[in-house]
Amino acid sequence: MLDSKKNILLAMAGAAVLMASSPALAQDPAAPAPATATTAAPVDTAAPTPAPAAEAAPAEEAPAASHGSITPISMFMEATLVVKVVMIGLLLASVFSWTLLLIKLFEFGGLNRKTDQFLEAFRGTRTIADMRRVATSDEFDGNPLADMAAAATEEIELSRQAGLSVTGDHRDSALNRAQAAVAAVQSGLAKRLSGGQQFLASVGSTGPFVGLFGTVYGIMNSFIGIVESNTTNLAAVAPGIAEALLATGIGLFAAIPSVVFYNYFNTRIAAYGTRSDGFAAELLNAISRQLDKGA
Fold this sequence. Notes:
The chain is mainly alpha-helical. The protein has one domain (74-293). Helix content is 85%, strand content 0%. It contains ten helices and no strands. The chain has helices at residues 2-27, 32-46, 50-68, 72-78, 81-122, 128-135, 144-161, 171-193, 197-229, 234-293. The longest helix has 60 residues, at 234-293. The radius of gyration is 51 Å and the shape is rod-shaped.
């Protein structure tokens, strides 16, 4: 009986202990909750980390943008002193060539116009005195054909003033002297019309080689830069090579128009020379005719 009571008391005590410990056990599953909250907080703070990666992307594209900004002016400014001197010299030569083109175009235009007017007036004369008056007039001053007519008629006039019979015994000698005077004027005509041709020929023949010299010098400096920088990256030396090649481009830009202008004006000079030869024959025939008439 006593043992049964003791067992009942022990059972009741154990139940009481279990009931007392049950609130703590109920709280145990919730215990990790603060830890979960604490661990979630770093996840929220680490979320913005991809933003710097997005900002770094434009930095990688910056070199490509810098290469796209290369222009002829920037290449000239970045070139070495020798290459700059070559470029400036070729550009000045090109400017002079185009200026010479305009000058000679106006010169030949005015020359042909005055020549046409002179020939019209000359062919209307009837005596050697009339020829001389037209040839020495201020209207045709400086015209090559007028100078030829003035020289021939002046020689006839000087022969008359010397007392020679230009319509008789001394006709042939006077005509020969007139022909020599015309030839003397013609000999200076080619030199007068070919002014500037030597410059055009020089630029046309040497321009590409001067530009090539600048290119060789610039590329040489680019390869020296490769050795000093110890890199084979083409992007590091491409601007220097482009600057060097620009010198050759400017050389061709100066030389090609100069060659074209030289050939063009050579054709114009030859055409006017043929015209002056024809007028020389016409002038001497007219003088000979007037001498035969006794004028």
